[in-house]
From TrEMBL:
Belongs to the sulfatase family. PANTHER family: ARYLSULFATASE, ARYLSULFATASE FAMILY MEMBER. This is Sulfatase. GO terms for molecular function: arylsulfatase activity. Residues 5-110 form the Sulfatase N-terminal domain. InterPro entries: Alkaline_phosphatase_core_sf (IPR017850), Sulfatase (IPR050738), Sulfatase_N (IPR000917). Coiled coil: none annotated. The lineage of its organism: Bacteria, Pseudomonadati, Pseudomonadota, Alphaproteobacteria, Rhodobacterales.
Length: 128
C-alpha cells in the first residue's frame, strides 16, 4: 500500500507573498525555504478577501466569504463548515487533521480545554 504524504498548510499573518527567500527580495527564510523545496508552494494565489478572517475561512472551507458569512473581521465562522471543507475532505481520505496556531476564525475566546497536555490556550509559559 502506498503511504499517504504528510500535508502541512502554513499560513502566516500580515505576510506578503514576496517576503520569503525564494522570491529574491533578500529576505532570509531558511526553514520555510527547506519546507518549500520538498513540497508545494503556491506562488500565484489570489485571496478571496483582503481581510484575514474571511480569507482564512475561505481557505479552510473552500467557500467564498458571502457563503460562509465571514465577510469581515469580527464575524465567527460556523464550525459546521469545517466538516464540509478542507478538514472534512482530508478526514474522509483517512487523515488525522489538526489545527495549530492562530485560528482567528472567531471574534471571541472560544478556547475549550480538553484536559490533554498538548492543548494549550497560548504559548506563554509553555515548556514541552
Amino acid at each position: 500500500m502506498t503511504r499517504k504524504p504528510n500535508v502541512i498548510l502554513i499560513s502566516t499573518d500580515q505576510h506578503r507573498g514576496d517576503c520569503i527567500g525564494p522570491e529574491g527580495r533578500g529576505v532570509k527564510t531558511p526553514n520555510i525555504d527547506k519546507i518549500g523545496a520538498s513540497g508545494v508552494r503556491f506562488s500565484k494565489c489570489i485571496t478571496p478577501h483582503p481581510m484575514c478572517q474571511p480569507a482564512r475561512a475561505s481557505i479552510l472551507t473552500g467557500k467564498l466569504p458571502y457563503t460562509t458569512g465571514v465577510r469581515d473581521n469580527g464575524r465567527d465562522l460556523d464550525y459546521s463548515f469545517g466538516a464540509q471543507g478542507l478538514a472534512g475532505i482530508f478526514g474522509d481520505a483517512g487523515y488525522d487533521t489538526h489545527f495549530i496556531g492562530k485560528a482567528h476564525l472567531s471574534s471571541h475566546d472560544t478556547f475549550a480545554p480538553t484536559g490533554k497536555p498538548e492543548c494549550h490556550k497560548s504559548a506563554k509559559d509553555y515548556d514541552p
